[in-house]
Amino acid sequence: MFKLIHKDKNSRARNGVLTTAHGEIQTPCFMPVGTQGSVKTVSPQELKESGASVILSNAYHLFLRPGMEVIRKAGGLHKFMSWPGAILTDSGGYQIFSLALLRKIRDEGVEFQSHIDGMKHFFTPEDVIGIQKDFGSDIMMPLDECVHYPCAKDHAVVAMNRTLDWASRSKSAHSSRLAAQKQLLFGIVQGATYEDLRRECAVKLTEMGFDGYAVGGISVGEPKNLSYNIVNFTAQNLPESKPRYLMGVGLPPDIIQAVEYGIDMFDCVVPTRYGRNGTAFTSEGKMTIRNSPYIEDFAPLDKNCGCYTCKNFSRAYLRHLFNTEEILGLRLVSLHNVHFYLQMMRNAREAIAQDRFMEFKKEFLSKYNQNQ
User: Fold this and answer.
1) 267 belongs to the catalytic site
2) Bridge partners for 105 per DSSP
3) CB contact set of 308 (below 8 Å; sequence gap of 6+)
4) Given 134, 144, 211, 267, which residue is catalytic?
5) Active site residue: 90, 127, 134, 144, which one?
6) What is the pLDDT of residues 57-82, one digit of tens each?
7) How confident is residue 178, by pLDDT bands cut at 50, 70 and 90?
8) Is 254 a catalytic residue?
């Protein structure tokens, strides 16, 4: 469960510890994304050495491939992917709404066609809990309805009420299983960009009583200042005694800003997706390593980084790998990016403990933004 350790004196940033069946998670934390049971190009050993204590996988993708029977026979998702730490599994709700070829949403659940082979499937909230129970997830997310921006308020109301109903049904399904003693279940706040809906959703989920609360429906097309406002507002309506998880966000400045608002957990595909495309995150901003200025640049990606990539390889070599389409290049930059995100969170936690988070934020952003 969650224990609040310290709150920064000059912001709402906070340090905590979330205890799971597969170890403790120091918060605020970043969860590398292993959508299909793999953090792309990065091995479990490398993740562990980089300091990851929890990763994210996705119920929708793993249900389709390799399928539940394979994961059950493997002894659960931890054994299947050989990951010793904690795993949070997303319900797949967002993927159903964004990837499925066709989908029909009704109060009972969601009917959808696989984006892989077109086969029809139907998920109820109870099904999604059952799937994650078989995974052996440390943290489970319920099925919810995510809407895109802009969204008419009447549509947002329907989606929010359906999300609340599904949350209640998910909690009942979770509570009826022995696994509930070991598997945590979070609620997801929806409500589009409407503060009154966000408040109502947060209050009702809190009344139901979950192990943690997620802010969903962010980064779905809305302007950045609006997403910041919604995250800030929603966080203030969530209980202090439980972890707060901002789903699918984001770039380093977005994460640092949300930490100031009191958010504890983050996930995003950005570190590995950018890494595969030759973009590195450094303490001095983003760097597109395949560009010509690095042809004879024998400095490390980031002089302030202690990852395997920065200890051993130059910008010139990494540029060479990308421009000759050598797979090692995207592996090394992805590994660096994951390490950068995890180190950023360690630095944030240290700053919070010393009541200097706002100073850390200002310094981090000034360096990070100078080369943007």
Assistant:
1) yes
2) 110
3) 46, 49, 332, 335, 339
4) 267
5) 90
6) 999 999 999 999 999 999 999 999 99
7) low
8) no
